[in-house]
Design goal:
10 helices, two-stranded antiparallel ribbon, about 0% strand
């Protein structure tokens, strides 16, 4: 899911902006995919997650939460007594997410000219990922809402309220992204990158 997340959409915008400033005729998504092997923090974080899973050891706040769960205590009250009147069906989660993934993959290929003769790498490089992610996200929302309604899991009002709550939860990330873009624009206009290179670049020779 990381390859089709909204955060990746933000990254693609920044990458494309940098490519345009440098006058490079390259696709932002292709550059993003090529950069994955060099994302050491993300890769090490995934390795750490696997280590925690297989070792069974937790740390910090998660360790405290696990101990509270084992004692059936949460905020001083017994936990684990939450019951749902609706049976839990795995496909209510898997199908909408699967649709998002499928539409994103096919959409990137289509948007980049894959159906007009472009190769897979060329199509993914030329695609406008922000538009495709918008298609995919709305398709997933519509499918999830329809499934909830057809199974009488949620009423139309509850589906609408869930959508609104989801939008609300994105307010802070959207604000962070907006501020990041603004900061990037200010740094670009001020020539911060060139200043940093001129100031500290010369004493430090590349390996």
């Amino acid at each position: 899911m990381a390859l089709i997340s909204t955060w990746v959409g933000m990254e693609l915008g920044l990458i494309q902006s940098g490519l345009s400033d440098l006058g490079l005729d390259m696709g932002a998504y292709d550059v993003f995919l090529r950069s994955i092997p060099f994302r050491f923090y993300s890769l090490l974080a995934l390795i750490f997650v696997l280590f925690i899973i297989f070792s069974g050891k937790d740390y910090g706040p998660m360790l405290k939460a696990e101990r509270n769960a084992q004692l059936s205590i949460k905020d001083g009250q017994a936990a684990g007594h939450f019951e749902s009147s609706q049976s839990k069906k795995w496909y209510n989660a898997v199908l909408p997410i699967g649709l998002v993934v499928i539409i994103t993959m096919v959409g990137l290929f289509y948007n980049g000219g894959g159906f007009e003769g472009a190769g897979l790498r060329e199509a993914y490089s030329n695609a406008d990922a922000s538009v495709v992610l918008l298609w995919a996200s709305f398709a997933g929302i519509i499918l999830a809402g329809l499934m909830s309604r057809l199974q009488n899991v949620l009423s139309i009002k509850e589906v609408s309220e869930a959508f609104v709550e989801g939008v609300k939860s994105m307010a802070v990330p959207a604000m962070i992204l907006s501020l990041a873009w603004s900061l990037g624009g200010v740094n670009s206009d001020l020539g911060t990158a060139q200043f940093m290179v001129d100031t500290i670049g010369k004493p430090f020779q590349p390996f």
